[in-house]
C-alpha cells in the first residue's frame, strides 16, 4: 500500500472492439475524497472503475498516483481495496477468515493479522458473527464482510461497484450510512459507482456524471442538484419535467421561452440565442400549487393522478394548453381539482436542445410545440 496526495486520471479511454465505452476521462481525486461515478446503465461507470483497479487495460490515457504512473501496474501492485455488487466472498471460509484473507496473502505477522481483523470486524459491527460462513449471513451482513475485507489492509483507495444494489430498500439505507461512517472514521479515499442519484448525492463529496462514456459534469452534490450542466444531467438528477420550447427572448441569464402555447420565464444555462430550440427543466417539487396571483410562470391546470407518498403527494396534472407535468406537494389535492400552478423563474432551467433525435424522445410534449 502507498498513500498519495492526488490520484490523477489523464484522458483515460477504453474501447471494446470498435465501440467506445469510456472516452477521455480527466479526473483528479484528492486523498480522503469520496467520489461517485454516476450515470445510466451502459454509460461507462464500471469500465472506469475497472480501469482504475487494473482489471482492464486502458486503450488510451494514463493514471498517476502523485508522480508515479500506475496504469501499467497489475491490480495487486496498486494496493486498492475492491467491493463488488456480488460480494465475492469465499463460501468455505468463516467471516473472520474471509476478512483476514488479504492480510494472510500479504504475509503480515500473525499477531498483526489478528489485531487488524478484529478491528475491521468491530468497524462493520459483525462481532457476533465471526465464526459463521457467508451462507449463514443476511445480504447486508455479507456486504459488511466484503467491505471489511476491502478496508482491512488500509488501502490507499477503495473502489466500490454498486455495492448496495442487491439489498432491499431498508438495508440499503442502513448500509449507506455505514459506508459514509466508515469513510469518515478511516479517512478513506473512495470511488463509488452507482446509477442511483440519491445514493450518490447522499454519499459523495463530488460526483462525476457520465453519459455514453463521456463526462457530462463534475461537481458537488449541491452543484449537481441545483445546476445540472445540460438537460441530460438534469434528466438524470430528478428534473422530471422536460419540455421542448423555443426562445422568445434571451436577456443575459434570463430567457423567455414559448413552450406548448405558454410563455415561461427561466434561468438560461449554456449557450443559445433568441429563437433557439431549447429544453426547459423543472423538478416536481419546484412546481407550487398555490400559484393564484402570480405574474410569471402561472399555469392553470387540472390534477389527473395523485399518489400518496407519506408527507407529500406526487401528482400528474395537465395544463389548459395540454402540457402534462409532474409535481409534488404537501397540500391536499385530488384528481379533477382545478389548480393554479406556479414555478419560480430561478427554478426553471433553460438548456440548448442539442440534436433533434435526442429531444424527440422527451415525453409530455404535445406535437404543437414543434
Ligand atoms: N467486456 C466487454 N466487452 C464488450 N463491451 C463491453 C464490455 N464491458 C462493457 N462493455 C460495453 O461498454 C459500455 C459501458 O459499459 P459499463 O459496464 O462500463 O457501463 P455501466 O455504466 O457500468 O453500466 P451498468 O450500470 O449497467 O453496469 C457498454 O456499452 C457495454 O456494453
From TrEMBL:
It comes from the Bacteria. The keyword Nucleotide-binding applies. Keywords: ATP-binding, Nucleotide-binding, Transport. The keyword Repeat does not apply. Residues 7-237 form the ABC transporter domain. It holds the Pfam family TOBE_2. InterPro entries: AAA+_ATPase (IPR003593), ABC_SmlMolc_Importer (IPR050093), ABC_transporter-like_ATP-bd (IPR003439), ABC_transporter-like_CS (IPR017871), Mo/tungstate-bd_C_term_dom (IPR008995), NA-bd_OB-fold (IPR012340), P-loop_NTPase (IPR027417), Transp-assoc_OB_typ2 (IPR013611). One of its GO terms (molecular function) is ABC-type transporter activity. One of its GO terms (cellular component) is ATP-binding cassette (ABC) transporter complex. This is Putative ABC-type spermidine/putrescine transport system, ATPase component.
Amino acid at each position: 500500500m502507498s498513500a498519495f496526495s492526488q490520484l490523477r486520471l489523464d484522458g483515460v479511454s477504453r474501447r471494446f472492439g470498435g465501440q467506445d465505452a469510456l472516452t477521455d476521462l480527466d479526473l483528479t481525486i484528492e486523498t480522503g475524497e469520496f467520489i461517485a461515478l454516476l450515470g445510466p446503465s451502459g454509460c461507462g461507470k464500471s469500465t472506469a472503475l475497472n480501469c482504475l483497479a487494473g482489471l482492464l487495460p486502458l486503450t488510451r490515457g494514463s493514471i498517476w498516483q502523485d508522480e508515479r504512473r500506475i496504469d501499467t501496474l497489475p491490480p495487486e501492485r496498486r494496493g486498492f481495496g475492491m467491493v463488488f455488487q456480488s460480494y465475492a466472498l469465499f463460501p468455505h471460509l468463516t467471516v473472520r477468515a474471509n476478512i483476514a484473507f488479504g492480510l494472510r496473502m500479504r504475509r503480515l505477522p500473525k499477531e498483526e493479522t489478528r489485531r487488524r481483523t478484529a478491528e475491521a470486524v468491530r468497524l462493520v459491527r459483525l462481532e457476533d458473527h465471526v465464526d459463521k460462513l457467508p451462507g449463514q449471513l443476511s445480504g447486508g451482513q455479507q456486504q459488511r464482510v466484503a467491505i471489511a475485507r476491502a478496508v482491512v489492509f488500509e488501502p490507499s483507495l477503495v473502489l466500490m461497484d454498486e455495492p448496495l444494489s442487491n439489498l432491499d430498500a431498508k438495508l440499503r439505507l442502513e448500509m449507506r450510512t455505514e459506508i459514509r461512517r466508515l469513510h469518515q472514521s478511516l479517512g478513506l479515499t473512495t470511488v463509488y459507482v452507482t446509477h442511483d442519484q440519491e445514493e450518490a448525492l447522499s454519499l459523495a463529496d463530488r460526483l462525476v456524471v457520465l453519459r455514453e462514456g463521456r463526462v457530462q459534469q463534475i461537481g458537488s452534490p449541491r452543484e449537481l442538484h441545483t445546476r445540472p450542466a445540460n438537460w441530460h444531467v438534469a434528466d438524470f438528477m430528478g428534473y422530471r419535467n422536460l419540455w421542448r420550447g423555443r426562445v422568445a427572448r434571451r436577456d443575459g441569464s434570463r430567457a423567455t421561452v414559448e413552450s406548448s402555447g405558454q410563455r415561461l420565464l427561466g434561468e438560461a444555462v449554456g449557450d443559445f440565442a433568441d429563437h433557439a430550440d431549447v429544453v426547459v427543466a423543472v423538478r416536481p417539487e419546484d412546481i407550487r400549487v398555490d400559484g393564484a396571483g402570480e405574474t410569471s410562470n402561472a399555469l392553470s391546470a387540472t390534477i389527473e393522478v395523485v399518489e400518496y407518498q407519506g408527507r407529500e403527494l406526487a401528482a400528474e396534472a395537465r395544463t389548459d394548453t395540454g402540457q402534462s407535468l409532474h409535481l409534488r406537494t404537501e397540500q391536499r389535492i385530488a384528481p379533477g381539482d382545478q389548480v393554479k400552478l406556479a414555478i419560480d423563474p430561478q427554478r426553471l432551467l433553460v438548456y440548448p436542445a442539442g440534436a433533434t433525435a435526442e429531444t424527440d424522445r422527451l415525453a409530455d410534449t404535445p406535437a404543437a410545440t414543434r
